Amino acid sequence: MVAERATLVLGGAALGAISYAAYQKLTLKQHTPQRPTAVNTQQQQKQQHTGLSAFEKARSIVPFGFPGPVNDLIYRNAYVTSYNRRDRNPNWVAEHLTADSLKRGPDVDRQKSTFKEDESIPEKFRAKLSDYFKSGFDRGHMVPAADTKNSQISMNETFYLTNIAPQVGEGFNREYWAHVEHFCRQLTKKFKDVYIFTGPLYLPYQDPSDGKFYVKYQVIGNPAPNVAVPTHFYKVIMTQDDRGHYSIGAFVLPNQPIPDETPLTKFQVPLDAIERGSGLVFFENLGEDTKRRLPDLCRQTECKLVIRKFNDAQKQAPIKQLPPK
Q: How far apart are CA 127 and CA 230, in angstroms?
């Protein structure tokens, strides 16, 4: 069940200040239909006179192309990602887990994989290995390497920096975040299909000195700061069981050390809250009414982490540059 008092600020609304029930009441409030506006006949006649559509007029306004924003959509063997050129981080990374997809393939070994820059991104917008060097942050996987043990090629592709974002290492990437990733894999034991979206968030916080809300995050890079450090990370999970029934769980975790004993349900939020905070729409083809009616994942299964101690050296491998071409 979604926590009664969420502790996040998403999409400009302070969820921590109101109960989830009140939040639903506010967001589902019916709007009074507006009176139809009169048609401007002079404007209509003028457009008919020119014979040009708005699209055709745009060609004369921006004859040399639109400046963007450009979000690079990248297709890999085990995931799809949308890359944000300004923040040098993914907007989202999508994967589909099944019991079969998690089976280990022959000779697949994480030690064979190395972090690498994604040369499909224009050089001036590309996250670089040097950006993370001595930054104090781990190169945090959005789709973890452990989700792709069935193929060395797929595992290697998780090390592209277009699948990476800066994460606090001790207490988060190497511990609690890794436990959440393991929880997602464990879901395949109960559900035949597990669909996951993972990505960064940049959320406002309330300054106690003046009570106002601000968005503040660090930027790392070498020689110039380029890569934004997210304040939070989200995981949106949809499961399907053998009877074809779906359920949804949405979680937002702060990019900071989290004690292992902290319940995962503490970070559960309404899906709508992540959409407002990120500007994204998940599972759009289902429609808003269907999404709201889907059961809560944490009512269909126990959203509890199994604490496993990971080897820090394995979780945070040393930086290796690819040989020059």
A: 14
Which amino acid does the sequence have at 41? T
Residue 195, helix vs strand vs coil? strand
Count CB neighbours of 29 within 10 A: 7
Q: Identity (one letter) of the amino acid at 64?
A: F
How far is 235 from 178, CA to CA, in rounded Å? 13
- The owner of tokens 């224009």 is 122
Distances (CA, A) of 281 to 163, 271, 284, 288: 20, 9, 6, 10
* CA count, 13 A, side-chain hemisphere, 294: 24
Which residue among the candidates 141, 179, 182, 245 is catalytic per the annotation?
Answer: 141
69 preceded by cis ω (within 30°)? Answer: yes
Per the CB < 8 A criterion, the answer to whether 247 and 190 are in contact is no
* Spatial distance between the Cα atoms of 110 and 10, rounded to a whole number of angstroms: 36
Backbone angles phi, psi at 212, to 5 degrees: -90, 160
Is the CB of residue 95 less than 8 Å from the CB of residue 78? yes
Neighbours of 6 (CB within 10 A): 24
- pLDDT tens string, the chain, 325 residues long: the values are 444 334 445 544 344 333 344 434 444 444 444 555 555 555 555 555 557 899 889 999 999 999 999 999 999 999 999 999 999 999 999 999 999 999 999 999 999 999 999 999 999 999 999 999 999 999 999 999 999 999 999 999 999 999 999 999 999 999 999 999 999 999 999 999 999 999 999 999 999 999 999 999 999 998 899 999 999 999 999 999 999 999 999 999 999 999 999 999 999 999 999 999 999 999 999 999 999 999 999 999 999 999 976 554 454 544 444 444 3
Beta bridge partners of 220: 227
Cα angle 206, 271, 266 (rounded to 5 degrees) comes to 60
CA 222/CA 188 separation, integer angstroms = 40
- Angle (CA) 148-153-158 rounded to 5° is 55
Residue 232 annotated in active site: no
